[in-house]
Design a protein that fits this description.
single chain; alpha+beta; Arc Repressor Mutant, subunit A; Beta-Lactamase; 2 domains; six-stranded antiparallel sheet; two-stranded antiparallel sheet; 8 strands; globular; transcription regulation; Tscrpt_reg_IclR_C
């Protein structure tokens, strides 16, 4: 009875601000809030208590409780009574996994990720650009001790990731500037690139080498080497990368791994019916 009361307490009265917002925006406002809760819960595997989730989402506890109760009935969230915490539910996973299935190249990419993992002994990743950020679709885990930059389904800024820089190197300077203007250049570590001029120099190196390097720019102690997979119009379809601790991905190994990643990305491009840009095909 006590645990049930924790979750089923009588909701507090709604604020005038929230009532006015719902009156103005109708169901769209509620949908937006529900999706905010789902996105927030997805950020932390440990889950959230009701009050903490309300603070994080910027909503009253009564509003959050009402939305969570509805989402729980549809299995998009679930409540852990032993810890009084809310978590992402099974339905959210099944709906989200449709995104990866729709990207029908994921299954075809798995043998190439395995090849990358086996040849480099490091974790191999497949990622795409979504809403001007990088999202990891799947990965082949290294058998070595590993600290992942982000989990599958997680996001990272384009300017601070190997995959992001690999893709940005295919864009025009105008498009890169536009992304910088909208997304900024976050300083995630002391080695992050935070000046446009430095980023453009780095992108020119990427174009010359055919692969990009994240040198502890997103997380200290971690390096990531990436290359683009192209579609049939020679445009970026996805990117593959190898990530590993700097103790293993040393300065001497970077060009070796970079060549492997670049070559495997070209192989996957061909396997998916894509076409390499003329400049990269010549190199």
């Amino acid at each position: 009875m006590k645990k049930s009361m924790i979750r089923r307490k009588t909701p507090e009265p709604r604020s005038h601000t929230e009532a006015e917002a719902d009156a103005k925006d109708g169901s769209v406002q509620s949908v937006n809030r529900a999706l905010t809760l789902i996105e927030t819960l997805a950020e932390d595997d440990e889950g959230y208590r009701l009050t903490d989730l309300a603070v994080r989402a910027g909503l009253s506890t009564s509003t959050v409780h009402r939305l969570l109760t509805t989402l729980e009935k549809r299995r998009f969230v679930q409540f852990d009574r032993s810890e009084s915490k809310w978590h992402i539910g099974a339905r959210a996973f099944s709906v989200g996994s449709t995104f990866a299935r729709r990207r029908n190249f994921v299954a075809h990419a798995m043998p190439y990720l395995r090849k990358l993992r086996d040849q480099t002994r490091e974790t191999a990743n497949l990622a795409v650009v979504d809403d001007e950020t990088i999202i990891v679709l799947t990965r082949m885990e290294s058998r070595e001790i590993m600290r992942s930059l982000t989990k599958v389904g997680g996001r990272v800024a384009m300017v601070a990731s190997g995959v992001g820089k690999a893709v940005l190197a295919t864009y025009s300077d105008e498009d890169v500037n536009a992304i910088i203007h909208r997304q900024g250049m976050p300083r995630l570590t002391e080695k992050s690139i935070v000046r446009p001029g430095e980023l453009f120099k780095a992108l020119e190196i990427v174009r010359q080498r055919g692969y990009a390097l994240d040198d502890e720019e997103a997380r200290m102690g971690l390096r990531c080497i990436a290359a683009v997979v192209y579609n049939d119009c020679s445009e970026p379809l996805a990117a593959i990368s190898v990530s590993g601790m700097t103790s293993r991905v040393t300065d001497e190994r970077v060009p070796i791994i970079g060549t492997i990643v670049r070559d495997v990305a070209a192989e996957l491009t061909v396997a998916l019916g894509g076409t390499m840009p003329a400049a990269e095909a010549r190199s």
